[in-house]
Fold this sequence. Notes:
Blueprint: H1 7-23, H2 28-35, H3 39-52, H4 66-88, H5 98-105, H6 110-119, E1 144-145, E2 154-159, H7 164-173, E3 180-186, E4 193-197, E5 200-204, H8 206-209, E6 213-216
Antiparallel strand pairs: 1-6, 2-3, 2-6, 3-4, 4-5
Helix pairs in contact: 1-4, 2-3, 4-5
Amino acid sequence: xxxxxxxxxxxxxxxxxxxxxxxxxxxxxxxxxxxxxxxxxxxxxxxxxxxxxxxxxxxxxxxxxxxxxxxxxxxxxxxxxxxxxxxxxxxxxxxxxxxxxxxxxxxxxxxxxxxxxxxxxxxxxxxxxxxxxxxxxxxxxxxxxxxxxxxxxxxxxxxxxxxxxxxxxxxxxxxxxxxxxxxxxxxxxxxxxxxxxxxxxxxxxxxxxxxxxxxxxxxx
Length: 220
């Protein structure tokens, strides 16, 4: 039986899931900042989610239980499937779909999700390369952030977070999913990446580099 989740809890669950995946843990302070709520409200929500079995019990840990992980993946799958629908069927720009998808995910029943998923032929990823977990197990396996790219190696851009400012930035410098590039090196001062795209030298902000995920190209 699928657990019913309050809509206001969805972003909290997603935040814990993504923080845990990215940095190994979530903290009260970071959740408060990310969700723009008070630390005391975060503490209150944590207690309620622990009682529901969504978060693991314990004062010094903020971690999803196995059931909580399943819930997070289901919410994210709904969100990303709607993003895919909006871009592929309604021709939305990839940087304009997040808010629409956030509104739709909360009112999407499991039955509607399955119908939409079948209609779209079960896509593996959203427009930003994020895994639709119902159709693909993981999203970052085998990928490296541009900030950790090896000079001289050829890569393909495979994943970028759904952040409007970041998406506008990569569009401005000519990067897109599926783009092939070669890492030439990094500026010694601030670790700005220097990449080659089709013979053109492009510099990428170190702030953006940590969120642009690449797959190394293999020679045939």
